[in-house]
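Final report, results section. Input specification for complex C-07:
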Amino acid sequence: MMSNRKRFGKVVELREEKIQEYKDLHASSNAGVRHLLSKYNIHNYTIYLHQLDDGKYYLFSHFEYSGEDFEKDMELLSEEPENVAWWKLTDPCQVPIKNRQTGEQWARMEEVYHND
Amino acid sequence: MMSNRKRFGKVVELREEKIQEYKDLHASSNAGVRHLLSKYNIHNYTIYLHQLDDGKYYLFSHFEYSGEDFEKDMELLSEEPENVAWWKLTDPCQVPIKNRQTGEQWARMEEVYHND
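Structure output:
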């Protein structure tokens, strides 16, 4: 990662009954919207899954943004027909957590440490 | 990040009363053990903090490893006197979650997606 990139960490609950479907959608064999991530300057996008003590499953993502206008790029991404179709598949797998900003599907987390 | 790096995502609970202490320890103005991370091939180490629906606070980390023997490097890191001292400060801030492997302070999560 380049230190001039902005970093983002996000979290959302994953429905237990949707785990396999979500994994299949995100398998390396599935192109999904990977080309759109690159198009809109999103890099090193990694999603992790873990079950926490409340028994629920959570997805945690880390990605980096190399463009000049994140909000604009995310707006354009959200309007891409392929992305609209993608979110129609992935959103029903997830349950947004309560502690999030208005409009967020994935709640953005606070960065408390970084070392290149 | 280089695609030949191994990625790691981990999670641990952060005690609410230790949030400020933990942030202070990890402030960019505090050298901490940053030089040891570099020495043992740990890069792009980012820690995020968020409160989940159970009311507890969690730390989520993402980092990348560029060396040849991760277990060996982590063993050497764990024996560094500065690192031993560091963990004596940070471990009491944390509560390991139940869903973890033996010996883990931070529970390693499963990677379900990656796009460079």
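Chain B has a mean pLDDT of 96. Helices of chain B lie at 19-25, 34-39, 70-79, 81-90. This concludes the modelling results for the funded period.
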